[in-house]
Amino acid sequence: MAAVAAGPGPGSGPGDSPEGPEAEAPERRRKAHGMLKLYYGLSEGEAAGRPSGSDPLDPTDLNGAHFDPEVYLDKLRRECPLAQLMDSETDMVRQIRALDSDMQTLVYENYNKFISATDTIRKMKNDFRKMEDEMDRLATNMAVITDFSARISATLQDRHERITKLAGVHALLRKLQFLFELPSRLTKCVELGAYGQAVRYQGRARAVLQQYQHLPSFRAIQDDCQVITARLAQQLRQRFREGGSGAPEQAECVELLLALGEPAEELCEEFLAHARGRLEAELRSLEAELGPSPPAPDVLEFTDRGGSGFVGGLCQVASAYQELFAAQGPAGAEKLAAFARELGGRYFALVERRLAQEQGGGDNSLLVRALDRFHRRLRAPGALLAAAGLAEAATEIVERVARERLGHHLQGLRSAFLGCLTDVRQALAAPRLAGKEGPGLAELLANVASSILSHIKASLAAVHLFTAKEVSFSNKPYFRGEFCSQGVREGLIVGFIRSMCQTAQSFCDSPGEKGGATPPALLLLLSRLCLDYETATISYILTLTDEQFLVQDQSPVTPVSTLCAEARETARRLLTHYVKVQGLVISQMLRKSVETRDWLSTLEPRNVRAVMKRVVEDTTAIDVQVGLLYEEGVRKAQSSDSSKRTFSVYSSSRQQGRYAPSYTPSAPMDTNLLSNIQKLFSERIDVFSPVEFNKVSVLTGIIKISLKTLLECVRLRTFGRFGLQQVQVDCHFLQLYLWRFVADEELVHLLLDEVVASAALRCPDPVPMEPSVVEVICERG
């Protein structure tokens, strides 16, 4: 390091001076370093790795541009001890090696680019030399060509002027020749039927003949052409009036007549008249297919024929009219719109007649496909004739058919429900007629519920075809909103559920009317069906409907809770009516048994009457029947001696009989008074109280009606001693068996007590039978 820090010696040569090659090497390195900084876009400070706050002129900055090794070494020797000097040397050697490694890596990574750039520059030098030679030759050739062109132009100048004049004369002569040959050409074209060519010839010469008609020769040509043109127009009109050709040919005739100067208003009327004839023929053909004698084609084939025949012809007429008579303005457009509106209305009437024949069918797929093609076909005329409103009318027809289809499916669901009820009636009646056991109520209920649900799902799937994405009219506002909410949900599903409830409620009429022929089991089954709908089915069906038909309409709809409440009310009415009907059946037996017996002269009772046994049997059968569909219900705690209880009225009856001889003539009045006072303190029984949805409540209602009927019948009769005892035996028998069916056994006891007490009040000799004897008779019975 001392050697490095030492300056040049006195014997140094010129090659060792700072101006020599050794001094130029750092300068070259610095220049190369600057070029690299420019290439990588680095500033002076960033390239040097110098802190932003350092002085760029500091001679001791190793990375600075003004670094001086002598000053740097002097600073190190003055400020650093030997150990730090050794560390600085080691660090500097390491940095030098790292910089050499980085330089080598940079060269290796960019070696291919350097080689490619060198080759490219070498090729460019060679190509530019060749290009310069070719450009020189091209410039020489262009100069020679320019010289030759100038000499040729100078030589042919006089001839060019003469040729131009002769060409003008030749063109004029050709035009004159065309004018003189025009009559013959027109005649030949007319004879050959080339009417279009004849009109073009006439159009080319019309202006010239009109301009020079004051010259006799041109006047004669014009007169001849006018005669030929008149004959041509006559033939075109004749061809147009014959109407044997199609719409394009007739449009061509009208176009040629317009080119010949025929009045547009008259041609417009004739064009529409001929178009009307062709389109009316198509309509007559479609109407003939709807006649009674030939079998009508399916609706898809009918709409295809109408679309290809009438609608296609109407499109051709409309496009040809708009092209030919565009100059007519709004008046002509209105005339065309009125024409299309009239014929379109007749076509729509035929389509509606054919669609009406499909309303009785069960398959919606063919009908929806036919409506889709019908709607698609009318898009083109709807766009051409917006003022005629054909597209809107077609959409209205589709919407009307969809509404009618919803009504048809609603009627189908109603019929299916009535059919299920008929099947249930037959299933309930068949076992009785055949004398064997039929299907249970639970099985019948499951069959009815599954059948109705399957019909609802089938109807939803059928009407869902109207909203399929591939159907052209499914994106209309009606099918996105009102059809889904008011049509399917409210009209079909909610309407059917309410119709089902109304049909079920119709069985709750008075017994003298429709309800009299209704089997009680059917009432019970319908009540359970409505209750199941209230608990789960209605919610499931409406959720399924809302998922299939994404409603985009904000119209109010019936809440699920409202429908559930209606179904529950229907179930309640049916169950109440079932209780009344079954109570009426048992009441009729009890009433007849009381009214047809002579209670004054009856014999001493030896057994229970058969009618009481029948009442117990029927009540047991009803209990089994109701238990098939409804849960048990809640009962009050029963006493342990329910089946051994004796009536308190017996002792009171004996007391009345014991003290009766001592009564004055007013004694019966006192007895009635005592009975009435006893009723005031007894619990009031509501015979027609609301029925709950369980077996105990149903049986309680039936038994209350039956025993109340027995009580009222007893109050209308007069009993002898043995008659009172028979009533006592019958009531005890009923008490033995009926208490287990009701919610509160005290209810049976109170009613039966009242029956016996009423019989005792209406007995001249009220001597009751001993309770032990009554029990023996009842046990034996």
From TrEMBL:
Any GO BP: protein transport
Domain of life (superkingdom): Eukaryota
Transport is among the record's keywords: yes
Keywords: Coiled coil, Endosome, Golgi apparatus, Lipid transport, Protein transport, Transport
InterPro entries reported for this sequence: Cullin_repeat-like_dom_sf, Vps51
Localization per record: Golgi apparatus, trans-Golgi network; Recycling endosome
Segments of this protein annotated with the region Disordered: 1-65
GO cellular component, one term: membrane
Annotated SUPFAM superfamilies: Cullin repeat-like
Record carries keyword Coiled coil: yes
Protein function: Involved in retrograde transport from early and late endosomes to the late Golgi. The GARP complex is required for the maintenance of protein retrieval from endosomes to the TGN, acid hydrolase sorting, lysosome function, endosomal cholesterol traffic and autophagy. Acts as component of the EARP complex that is involved in endocytic recycling.
Oligomer status and interactors: Component of the Golgi-associated retrograde protein (GARP) complex. Component of the endosome-associated retrograde protein (EARP) complex.
Similarity section: Belongs to the VPS51 family.
The protein's name: Vacuolar protein sorting-associated protein 51 homolog
Species assigned in the record: Acinonyx jubatus
Gene, per the UniProt record: VPS51
